[in-house]
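[recover] target loaded
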């Protein structure tokens, strides 16, 4: 294989690989996997919010519990004080007022506590729902990936084979022409190399002037198209007269 032939084969391989890659990307499982990733992100941010709420509620409940214990203990102390020894009428009244105040505080805390416990339960349910959804999304993703693997076996095998061949082809191209090819490939969206068919380059199809034609056919096999500046392969036993 001459260097000119190698350049043409390299372009064919790269175009094939591009086509195969877009075939893979267009497989329905790929879209589904992306949709699953978006759904997971949403559920995860929901879960983060839920966990924040749970932490707040747990803090409130711990505070509520601490207050309750303190007021209940104080109540017992006041009751014990009132029961010990003999107290005058006004002192007894003071104790009663104190105990009534404490009872109201305890009642209020107990009332709040019912609400806090209900909220915590609700948040707990939301959390387990979110976790279940994440599990289901994981299962669905695994199923889609498996189906993708199965459906794309041939294509992936073809890509590996092409990639192997590409290494061999690249080994036959000089560093100078390789960097020219890579630059032209970017510039011309993959169509970097054209062949001279008769006196017409195969891609831009601008008929060469007789002088250019003479210069090109008497120069290197790998030249540059004077019109579109692609790599122009002049010595092309594959393409001559075959057309493509
Ligand atoms: Zn051209």
């Amino acid at each position: 294989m001459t260097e000119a032939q190698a350049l043409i084969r390299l372009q064919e391989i790269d175009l094939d690989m591009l086509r195969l890659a877009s075939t893979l990307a267009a497989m329905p499982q790929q879209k589904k996997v992306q949709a699953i990733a978006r759904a997971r992100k949403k559920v995860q941010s929901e879960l983060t919010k839920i966990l924040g709420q749970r932490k707040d509620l747990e803090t409130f409940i711990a505070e509520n519990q601490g207050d309750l214990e303190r007021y209940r203990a104080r109540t017992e102390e006041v009751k014990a004080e009132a029961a010990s020894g003999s107290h005058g009428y006004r002192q007894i009244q003071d104790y009663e007022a104190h105990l009534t105040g404490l009872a109201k505080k305890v009642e209020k805390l107990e009332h709040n506590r019912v609400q806090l416990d209900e909220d915590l339960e609700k948040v707990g349910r939301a959390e387990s729902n979110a976790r279940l959804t994440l599990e289901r999304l994981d299962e669905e993703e695994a199923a889609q990936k498996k189906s993708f693997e199965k459906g794309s076996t041939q294509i992936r095998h073809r890509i590996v084979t092409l990639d192997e061949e590409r290494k061999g082809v690249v080994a036959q191209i000089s560093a100078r022409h390789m960097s020219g090819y890579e630059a032209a490939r970017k510039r011309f969206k993959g169509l970097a190399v054209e062949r001279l068919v008769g006196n017409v380059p195969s891609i831009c199809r601008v008929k060469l002037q007789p002088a250019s034609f003479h210069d090109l056919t008497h120069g290197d096999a790998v030249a540059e198209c004077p019109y579109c500046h692609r790599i122009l392969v002049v010595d092309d036993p594959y393409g001559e007269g075959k057309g493509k």
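[recover] notes: The longest helix spans residues 89-151.
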